[in-house]
Specification:
The chain has one domain: Thiamin diphosphate (ThDP)-binding fold, Pyr/PP domains (Rossmann fold, 3-Layer(aba) Sandwich). Helix content is about 45%, strand content about 15%. It is built from six helices and six strands. It has a six-stranded parallel sheet with strand order 2-1-3-4-6-5, with helices on both faces. Helix 2 links the parallel strand 1 and strand 2. The protein is globular and about 40 Å long.
Length: about 160
């Protein structure tokens, strides 16, 4: 699956605002979004969550792109802004340290990132090439019905 395919699936599912922090696993998606004039770059994950909340208030259906290490940087924004005030966003998270396979600096967060999401009641799914369209639809539907953030976790090898 290509980054262009993923962006098209997101656009087709009515996601219409994209922000985040640069990441090597998400670089292709960010490049496609930037070329299409759809991406607002952020310097920190909590800033991206705040920008996405503003976009939601402006009628958009936002996506925040980040590496799972950045999840710790935006916990306060997610819990004290998005969850408290019912501002949904899709967190598209590259999962470094998945199953203990990565550089040492990624292993701790790789092991606990979904536990953190569970603890703060943000549902997540591990996406695969053959389930991505359904996963995006699930995320969209959950965001609309529950008005909470939702996370899709991307591992190495899903994108070409």
């Amino acid at each position: 699956m290509t980054s262009t395919d993923v962006v098209q699936m997101l656009v087709d599912s009515d996601f219409n605002f994209y922000t985040g922090v640069p990441d090597s696993m998400l670089a292709g998606i960010i490049a496609v979004l930037t070329a299409q004039g759809r991406y607002v770059s952020s310097v920190r994950e909590d800033e991206a969550v705040g920008i996405a909340a503003g976009a939601f208030l402006g009628g958009k259906q936002p996506v925040v792109l980040m590496q799972n290490s950045g999840l710790g940087n935006c916990l306060n924004a997610l819990t004290s802004l998005n969850l408290i005030y019912a501002m949904p966003c899709l967190l598209l998270i590259s999962w470094r340290g998945y199953q203990g396979n990565d550089a040492p600096e990624h292993l701790v967060m790789g092991e606990v990132c979904t536990k953190i999401l569970d603890t703060i009641s943000i549902p997540s799914r591990l996406i695969a090439t053959d389930t991505l369209q359904n996963d995006i639809g699930w995320a969209r539907d959950h965001m609309k019905s529950k008005r909470t953030p939702v996370a899709l976790m991307l591992t190495q090898g899903v994108l070409a």
